[in-house]
Backbone:
């Protein structure tokens, strides 16, 4: 079951009466929405990366991220310093993502789309079930690398700032990778026009594998950032995946910039809906309806290009 | 745009030579008739529990058939058919529980309501394609249990509704499980016949044309908006009927039975059976009911991993579904049908999702 994002802050202590002012509360909610949105953005980016390369929505993305988070959790529990565990997990996820593309996705590459979709749903079940089997379904505490302090007159916590910061760093690295490296260029070529890329001597298959690896690493970042708040369990990423998917589509499923903006908008929207409109289980529904209403007027997302077909 | 070669595959009887006359009519009907007789006799040879399981198989088959019409024939993906299944189930449950309507009379209103809901849902869905439609329907699947809990004075909230157990007509001398099996079997047969007639005719050709190339279809004078909405309505009507039957057979409805997982199961069943087939729906129903049981027998610890693995294997071996892959192979055995099957269900990867 998707778990609703927790909107109430557990640790922020109001330092003065300023905390109760409406404007202050609004800003607070916006900032914590941005932090949640940054996490959605990471996962949304992973979805966009795979969609651009293979025209496929990877329904297992969230559960792959959850599994990665368990790797980080094991490493931290074994006494590895947090950031070392973070990097090792990212590397492991990258290799794991490549392996999944090569072994599991490759056989259905030319199969009907629905077959590939079912394979990703199968993958979702496998990861979810395996995680439950290996790590049990009990909630696990996950350490946060950021100290719990409030900043700017209790407007935001260091955790929010840290999460946003980590996402920004990852984004800059990704941008640099695609913009300034040969392999990034080759990947863009492979995604844009596989046949021509192949004729230029680019191994399109290897580029796809790298794309899946990068997506898995981005998912892992999202998982590790969200785990201290949601607590770690095999169903942790259900709700996060849904918001990330929504964010990716809101931005336009083909646009990486859109994924980030979309993820942030979704984070802020769901936080504000939860605070001001309806604070029950229906929060998720209302947030989704709002976003779908936006899509009715912009059916290709905010930054997406319309699907054009030759007749 | 490529002219599709699978016309003959989708509508084999349209091109079959020599399908007139009494002898060929007998030949055409003898196979199905034998199967129907076997299906009707089967419950009297097996235990009550297996009868119940097979009844569920047929119910899911009707639901999957609905999804096949929409996704397989019309090319619109839905991750939210569990929501329409729930609508059908709750319509039947509320009519039974609140208004004391006899159980058989709850199915037509459920069908009607789900048809209307489908048309209403299909109208905004006209604007969405591929992954966007997937998101919208996914949102519906996620919202369903929450909405059911929210309107609790109608739906009984979290506890759901307990329904009176259906009694078989006295004097027939069969018990409840077997009676319901036969009722559901009849509904399934009617549903398959209706679907076949619909899909083999003008409407079905319009559905397929829209799936394969919406612009070309519009250029040929097909009212795409009308047919897409119609496909949505028909599809959800079938699924709603299945939902109503499930409420009658299980005599209980609760929000937790209609989660996202149910919608995904329909999609999986549809893909495993063969999305653009009618018979594939039954294979899908069998998969949805029995494979989780087998998975549980194999591994107590991680049954869903085994289920997932089964999905992977099916898709590797038969990417076009059991009936979709074996159908052309079987057709090749009969001499009169020498038409080649299409290589792939959709050449345009990315259209559907």
Residues:
């Amino acid at each position: 079951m998707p778990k609703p994002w927790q909107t109430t802050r557990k640790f922020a202590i109001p330092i003065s009466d300023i905390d109760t002012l409406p404007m202050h509360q609004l800003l607070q909610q916006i900032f914590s929405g941005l932090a949640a949105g940054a996490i959605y953005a990471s996962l949304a980016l992973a979805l966009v990366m795979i969609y651009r390369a293979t025209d496929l929505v990877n329904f297992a993305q969230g559960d792959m991220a959850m599994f990665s988070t368990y790797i980080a959790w094991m490493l931290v529990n074994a006494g590895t310093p947090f950031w070392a565990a973070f990097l090792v997990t990212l590397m492991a996820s990258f290799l794991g993502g490549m392996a999944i593309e090569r072994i599991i996705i490759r056989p259905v590459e030319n199969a009907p789309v629905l077959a590939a979709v079912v394979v990703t749903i199968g993958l979702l079940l496998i990861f979810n079930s395996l995680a439950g089997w290996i790590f049990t379904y009990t909630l696990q505490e996950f350490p946060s690398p950021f100290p719990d302090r409030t900043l700017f007159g209790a407007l935001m916590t260091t955790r929010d700032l840290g999460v946003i910061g980590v996402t920004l760093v990852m984004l800059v690295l990704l941008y640099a990778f695609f913009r300034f490296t040969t392999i990034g260029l080759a990947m863009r070529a492979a995604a844009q026009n596989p046949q021509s890329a192949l004729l230029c001597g680019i191994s399109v298959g290897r580029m796809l594998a790298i794309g899946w690896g990068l997506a898995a690493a981005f998912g892992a970042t999202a998982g590790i950032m969200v785990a201290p708040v949601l607590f770690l369990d095999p169903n942790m990423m259900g709700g996060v995946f849904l918001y990330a998917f929504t964010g990716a589509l809101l931005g336009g499923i083909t646009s990486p910039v859109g994924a980030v903006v979309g993820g942030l908008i979704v984070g802020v929207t769901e936080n504000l809906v939860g605070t001001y409109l309806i604070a029950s289980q229906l929060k998720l529904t209302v947030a989704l309806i709002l976003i779908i209403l936006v899509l009715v007027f912009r059916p290709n997302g905010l930054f997406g290009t319309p699907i054009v077909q030759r007749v | 745009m490529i002219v599709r070669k699978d016309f003959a595959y989708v509508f084999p009887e349209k091109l079959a030579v020599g399908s007139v006359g009494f002898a060929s009519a007998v030949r055409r009907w003898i196979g199905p008739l034998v199967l129907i007789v076997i299906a009707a006799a089967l419950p009297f040879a097996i235990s009550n529990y297996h009868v119940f399981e097979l009844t569920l198989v047929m119910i899911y088959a009707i639901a999957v058939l609905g999804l096949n019409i929409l996704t397989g024939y019309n090319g619109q993906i839905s991750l939210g058919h569990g929501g329409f299944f729930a609508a059908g189930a709750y319509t039947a449950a509320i009519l039974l529980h609140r208004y004391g309507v006899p159980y058989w009379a709850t199915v037509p209103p459920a069908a009607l309501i789900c048809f209307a809901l489908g048309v209403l849902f299909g109208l905004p869905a006209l604007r969405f394609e591929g992954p966007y439609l997937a998101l919208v329907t996914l949102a519906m699947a996620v919202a369903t249990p929450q909405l059911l809990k929210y309107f609790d004075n109608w739906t009984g909230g979290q506890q759901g509704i307990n329904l009176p157990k259906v009694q078989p007509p006295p004097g027939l001398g069969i018990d409840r499980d077997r009676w319901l099996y036969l009722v559901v079997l009849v509904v399934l047969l009617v549903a398959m016949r209706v679907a076949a007639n619909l899909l083999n005719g003008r409407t079905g050709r319009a559905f397929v044309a829209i799936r394969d190339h919406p612009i070309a279809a519009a250029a040929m004078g097909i009212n795409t908006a009308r047919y897409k909405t119609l496909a949505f309505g028909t599809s959800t009507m079938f699924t709603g009927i299945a939902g109503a039957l499930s409420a009658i057979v299980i005599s209980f409805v609760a929000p937790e039975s209609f989660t996202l997982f149910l919608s995904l199961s329909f999609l999986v069943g549809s893909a495993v059976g063969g999305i653009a087939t009618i018979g594939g729906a039954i294979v899908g129903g069998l998969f949805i009911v029995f494979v989780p049981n087998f998975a549980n027998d194999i591994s107590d610890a991680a049954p869903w991993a085994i289920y997932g693995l089964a999905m992977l294997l099916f898709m590797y071996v038969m990417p076009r579904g059991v009936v979709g892959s074996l159908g052309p192979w079987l057709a090749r055995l009969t001499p009169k049908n020498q038409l080649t099957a299409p290589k792939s269900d959709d050449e345009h990867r990315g259209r559907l999702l």
